[in-house]
Amino acid sequence: MLALTDSTFTAHLASAERPVLVYFWATWCPPCRMIGPVLAELETELAEVVQIVKVDVDTAVETARSQRIMGAPTLNLYRDGELVHSMVGARPKHALLRELEPHLGATTGR
């Protein structure tokens, strides 16, 4: 999973050719450790539909602040550089897919 920083976040979202799901996480966050492997699976399964990247809120402080991240994990879905959906907290894979599907279309295969 590609890690974005304060210096790469905005440019990456602006140049993305498909929606980007940004996983805002922290090393000290137990729910992040639970959802991390789920996102790694989805990164492979949905590679043609959405790009999944991560941002460490402790090292990318300006990005976390500008995106108004109040808790970890937070999953923000961006399309054309604009926030279209936000989720806070860990979820099982099926619940995550169900919540993302309206924003990604039927191409998720779920």
Automatic annotation (TrEMBL):
Intrachain disulfide bonds: C29-C32
GO biological process: cell redox homeostasis
InterPro entries reported in the protein's UniProt record: Thioredoxin, Thioredoxin-like_sf, Thioredoxin_CS, Thioredoxin_domain
Gene Ontology CC: cytosol
Molecular function terms, GO-annotated: protein-disulfide reductase activity
Keywords: Disulfide bond, Electron transport, Redox-active center, Transport
Record domain Thioredoxin: where: 1-105
PANTHER family in the cross-refs: GEO12009P1 (PTHR45663:SF11)
Protein family (similarity comment): Belongs to the thioredoxin family.
Protein name: Thioredoxin
Organism field: Kibdelosporangium aridum
